[in-house]
Design a protein that fits this description.
The complex is a heterodimer of chains A (about 350) and B (about 425). With about 350 residues, chain A is mainly β. In chain A, the strands form 8 sheets. A 4-stranded antiparallel sheet of chain A has the order 1-30-29-28, with no helix packed on it. Chain B folds into 2 domains: about 50 residues, no CATH class; about 325 residues, Alkaline Phosphatase, subunit A (3-Layer(aba) Sandwich). Helix content of chain B is about 35%, strand content about 15%. An 8-stranded mixed sheet of chain B has the order 6-5-7-1-8-11-4-12, sandwiched between helices. A two-stranded antiparallel sheet of chain B has the order 2-3. In chain B, α5 runs parallel beside α12. Classes of the chains: A mainly beta (about 350), B alpha/beta (about 425). At the A-B interface, β19 of A face α11 of B.
Amino acid sequence: MSHSLLAPPAGFDIKAAHVSAQWKCEKPLNCCRIDPKSQFVLVGGEWATPERVNMADGKIVKLEGGHESWVFDAAWSADSTRCVTSGGDGRLVWWDLTSEKPAKLHVLQAHKGWIRALSVSPDGKTLASGGNDGLVKLWNMADAKPLATITASKRDIYRTVFSPDGKLIASGDLLGAVVAWNVADGKESARYDAKPLHTYQGGQQVDFGGVRALAYTPDSKLLAAGGLYKATNPFGAVHEPIGQVFQTSDKKMIRQWVANAIRGGIFWSFRWLADGSLVGASGGSTGGFLLFFKPDGDKEIHRLGLPNILRDMDLAADGLTIATAHHDRHVRITRLAPKKA
Amino acid sequence: MKRSCDYACHSPKHKIARRQFIGTMAAGSIAGGLGVFTSSSAAEALKSQQKRVVVFNMHGGLSQLESWDPKPGTDTGGPFRSIETSVPGVRISELMPETAKIMHHLCLVRGVNTSEDDHGKGGYMMLTGRRQSPAAEYPQIGSVMAKALADEQNPLPGHILITPGGGGGRGNESAYLGPRFSSLAVGGGKPPQNTERPGTITDADDSLRQDVRREAAKKFLSRRRTAITDAYTHSYELALRLMSQRDSFDISKEAVRDQDRYGSSDLGRQCLLGRRLLEKGATFVQITHSNYDTHNENFNFHLEQVGEFDRPYATFIADLAERGMLESTLVVVLSEFGRTPGINLYYGRDHWSRAWTVAMAGCGVIKGAAYGKTGPNGTEVTDGQVDHANLFHTYLSAVGLDSMESFDIEGRDMPMADPASKPIKAILA
């Protein structure tokens, strides 16, 4: 199975991937998002203050006073002048980043419970938020006005992603349900069965896993969902990363990716690359890795071990720059190209 | 070899230790539970105010920071906020909004330091009030309460364990008190298994076969009576009583409205069954909620588990209060330990016994209070430090027992609680 490719950028070489920079933030990190102009990476972590890191010089600016809980996700406006952050307080906070000291534009009590998932439509006009209340909400990115509420699940929403044409918003929940919803009317468009990403452990009596990663190919033909499986001991961090690739035409799963010799890991984030491969960020007791797969193969084609366990990843618009958020408080930049001489 | 008084003459007076019997006779006070009184008037007095005990065992180690002692905004606080409760100044985790409404019934003991981070050892300490020792086995709180409080004529077992599937219990939980004070494990809100007589056996046939069994047992016991043979005989009688009490375990007999209020979760059914059993006269009920051993993704799991606990527990406490039963029912929420203030790299919290919380309600425990304190980030007790032994004494004191008393076990005085410790008097009303 293939999907249409974009031309890889000059120098693109996943086998030459290397960490090119790292900066230490205030607390262990949960999330990272690179702005559309590839100048900044916005991070959130185990405290209430997101941080904007300048990728040129590592200068950090704090976004203070918006949240009362940990920050779980972030999203950028198309012009990189504003961003939205979401937290364990159920809030969405719009920030103006044009001045030296970031200013809050809007603070909304948007969901009941955590907001783990944010995504922005390809045209930059619509923000989607996914909450522990099982709702996916759509917002006007420009003025924070609510647009629609979709009752997406009875359980926590872990990830959302817009389709490349912006007509669908897909959600992934704790129970392994991946559903694509029509943005126009909020109705269900397609449902994908990613149940292996959910574990109910009878002995420990807990639901575990969930759809932690979700990504459409640029042509919308494939949708990849990632998380964990083989959760023989959820409380002991014994579980392995797993990815599933679905054809959007018939909702069939065509590929399942697992990682070799990673006994403790979760796929936290997926991004499709310009050569048609996918990079998955795995973090867990075995460590932090970037794993590369092709949709026509079961095995990883390359992996890069990172210095610390990771919890999120993003890909810059240049197709070469990856940011990863780590427990050791670092945001790291990986270049998918040979090191500069 | 000296034999047990209990098995020599069957006198209820001889079920308590000799020296305390003398002492309490002199003091003219109650010496023990319904089955171990020094006088019939004392028995009647306590019977009229029959005490009951419920233990919620939060198996695996409930995080105090995600429940009773939150530290929001600190480096150990995690993502959850604290909320106001019905007691001004006492805040708990936002995961417990329903419990916050009934805080005026509760007493939080926030300065627990048990210094034992092993599951087995910690659980043993919290349920027996003693440290584990190769030299002796001690009975669990359920067995002690069954022995001290349960009326022998009560058709329900004195020590009932409610688990989701009806498993667990037994082992050597009754230690020297003997197997008749071990738990009966039930679950699912349904009558115990195998308590329905097959339809092919008539009343007359059943009566006849029971008479034959009793006669054989009587002949055997007249020559070889021991605690074990007694328990064997008792188990048959208990089974017969249980067969007549099947409805006591059937929560489908409860109003639909109540079933809705408690919710459809396993714990909701367990709590409703607990309430039903208390109303039918049960003495001790332990409800297990599993599992809190969250070394990985502590916050996701507490979101799920504490979220499941909150409503049924708060409903249970509110119902007991509304029905006038909380004054005579001690309700304890305990674990084998708490969880580390420090958050590990898997979003987990590990075992932490040095600063955690036990919640109590009812009987002789003060209401709407938080006793003891931990420091700003919860790593240590800064005021009102207590341990498992203090707590065990307190449970006994709360139900009107003298925790310094002893059981007479075949002529040996066996202190109910660790004689080197004492109750937390500040929380006893």
